[in-house]
Amino acid sequence: MSANKALIVGVSGVIGNALSEHLLGQGWAVHGLSRGRTAVASGCVPLTADLTNPEQLRDVLHGLDVDRVFFAAWSRQANEKENIRVNGAIVRNVLDAVGPSLKGGHAALVTGLKHYLGPFEAYATGTVPMTPFREEQGRQAVDNFYYEQEDRLFEAAERHGFSWSVHRPHTIIGFAIGNAMNMGVTLAVYATLCRETGQPFVFPGSPAQWNSLTDMTDARLLARHLEWASTSDGGRNEDFNVVNGDVFRWKWLWPRLAAYFGIEAAPFDGTTRPLADRMADAPAQWAAIAAKHQLREPNIDKLASWWHTDADLGRPMEVLADMTKSRKAGFLDFQSTPDAFFDLFQRLEAEQIIPKR
């Protein structure tokens, strides 16, 4: 019997997939909760439920023996008021179902740097803290579903007697199909489209993002951070930024991504050109590419999230996060961001999601 037993909420997403693979590799027993639309890692016990349905969750999770719960799911709604209602309820519903058996255990919540920037509908419109973002800067004076999720986590931890941690990654690079927020796969699909159709590989974002320092988070490093916080005294009842540990400028990285795919990066003239505005022909183009190269997924909508990549690369300010708090608490891991992209691209090729070079 495994000494560590985990429930991953959102197991089929970019975070949940990396976390399940990591924990299984460390000998954990892993149950994965999702809507059941995507296969889970081999060895993970799949559980299917509507996270917004408390009665269904109680039935599915009844009698489940776990000592760690990891929240890596959210449900995008039409506005932040609905985001707060729905996503706060997800945390509450799961912890209402498993909380009584979690006494002495741990629950970890993954949110992100919108903790500092504000939600999409009020993105960076308030007083954005000075970069690099630090945990001590606290919450912004705007509605934000991250805060609601935190409050439901804190409330349940106090009521049921378990510890908690909150993890705030920057843009996540990792393997997942059908994920709503996945820049790595989106850029791989975009670069492939450019190579196969002769389109220019144009940076879609803002001058601020092109020129400023930034950082990212490899899903594999985030998985190791989640395990560390859930098993170490230094990670209990704390909030943490989680980034790779290196910084870069997109004007340096963009040509390197292009070179991986054997294409040239188009010169950036300072104009923001969102992908969502330029991808009207992409579904048909991708279907043809998939047929030509015998790829696994001909539906581009299951691979690329143009809107999310546009939101990240279109930011009008520098965005990067400080990792000092994690370092001082004992987490010293590091990940090269270019290697994170190249590792992902190689896996996408190996699994026939994009054509091999």
From TrEMBL:
Entry-linked Gene3D superfamilies: NAD(P)-binding Rossmann-like Domain
Stretches assigned to the PRISE-like Rossmann-fold domain: 66-355
InterPro entries reported in the protein's UniProt record: NAD(P)-bd_dom_sf, PRISE-like_Rossmann-fold
Name assigned to this protein: SDR family oxidoreductase
